[in-house]
Amino acid sequence: MDLFSYIDRGGFIVYILLALNIIGFSIILWKFFVLAMARSKKEDIIESILLFIKQNNEKFSNKLLDNILAKKLSKLEQGMNTIKIISTVSPLLGLLGTVIGVLHSFDSISKLGLGDPSIFSAGISIALITTVAGMIVAIPHYIAYNYFIGILDNIENSLEAEVLKRL
């Protein structure tokens, strides 16, 4: 059996998961590009922070630096919540498909009896396909989210250390 027939057998929940997967991987590819650019422009970010502090003649404090860094990094954090939501919602959608499939199986059994095991196999198939699809979508998004959080933390720490060193 080919992939498309599995997707079709999984029903509308698998199509929702497929759409979430496309959206999520688009954001993940975009984040790889954005964070790679941020790493290469780290010096420019440091200079802009130092210039802001000097131009505004503000008394330096760690709170001021934290606020400036948060503002600079907020642009890098765009899309992260979407990746996190996809990694969280996908297994729940898979579980919903599981419940719908099992419900379908029990509904078939109540109408036609237990004489033929193939009666409830379609519902169990839906249950298993949606569970697998939910996990297939969730796992890479969860890994990507944690990877990007680590990169953002490293960028923030290195920016803060460099700014403090130059002040």
Mean pLDDT, to the nearest integer, reads 89
The total of beta strands comes to: 0
Strand content: under 5%
Q: State the share of residues found in helices, binned by percent.
A: over 70%
Stretches where pLDDT is under 50 for at least 5 consecutive residues are none
Major sheet summary line: none
* Shape assignment: rod-shaped
What is the CA-atom radius of gyration, in angstroms?
Answer: 24 Å
Instruction: List SSEs in N-to-C order.
Output: HHHHHH
DSSP summary: helix tally: 6
By oligomeric state, this entry counts as: single chain
What does this structure look like?
- The structure is a single chain.
- By secondary structure, the chain is mostly helical.
- The chain has one domain.
- Helix content is 87%, strand content 0%.
- It is built from six helices and no strands.
- The protein has helices spanning 3-10, 12-40, 42-55, 62-74, 80-112, 118-166.
- The longest helix is centred in the last third of the chain and has 49 residues, at 118-166.
- The radius of gyration is 24 Å and the shape is rod-shaped.
- The termini are far apart.
In short, what is this structure?
With 167 residues, the chain is an all-alpha fold. It has helices at 3-10, 12-40, 42-55, 62-74, 80-112, 118-166.
What features would you highlight for this structure?
rod-shaped; 167 residues; 6 helices; mainly alpha
What is the fold's blueprint, element by element?
Elements: H1 3-10, H2 12-40, H3 42-55, H4 62-74, H5 80-112, H6 118-166
